[in-house]
Design goal:
By secondary structure, the protein is mainly β. It is about 5% helix and about 40% strand. The chain contains one helix and ten strands. It has one helix spanning about 100-105, and strands spanning about 5, 10, 20-25, 35-40, 45-50, 55-60, 65-70, 75-80, 90-95, 120-125. The strands form two sheets. A six-stranded mixed sheet has the order 2-10-9-4-5-6, covered by helices on one side. The longest helix is centred in the C-terminal third of the chain and has 9 residues, at about 100-105. The relative contact order is 0.29.
Length: about 130
């Protein structure tokens, strides 16, 4: 699996915005199917958004209409634009390109988080 690096997290007030980025450590690697995930303190990892090679997207209900997943023209970086952030969005955010993981997470299969390895993620904190 390609090693991925997340960046762009930080501290923001409720209602604020952040833009996360995901790139391969070798930034010449093309990223096709890609997902953003998050893990809040005391909670299990959640699927946030997925972008397919075709460009089609899927979003978790709790972020729909607030977050947007996208890919740059060279397909070397995947973004997660997060708007109207809420304290409940506080979590470490991860990206992952494992196809088996993405499909299992979309299907809600039990234990899908263990199907792939995870990087360090980037911390997002939403607080007054």
């Amino acid at each position: 699996q390609v090693q991925l690096v997340e960046s762009g997290g930080g501290l923001v007030h409720p209602g604020g915005s952040l833009r996360l980025s995901c790139t391969a450590s070798d930034n010449t690697v093309v990223l096709n199917d890609m997902g953003w995930f998050r893990r809040a303190p005391g909670k299990q990892r959640e699927l946030v958004a997925v972008i397919a090679k075709s460009g089609s997207t899927n979003y978790a209900d709790f972020v729909k209409d607030r977050f947007t997943i996208s890919r740059d023209n060279t397909k070397t970086t995947v973004y997660l634009q997060m708007n109207d952030l809420e304290p409940e969005d506080t979590a470490v955010y991860y990206c992952n390109s494992n196809l088996k993981l993405l499909l299992a997470a979309l299907n809600g299969d039990s234990g899908w988080s263990h199907l792939a390895s995870w990087g360090q993620g980037t911390q997002v904190t939403v607080s007054r």
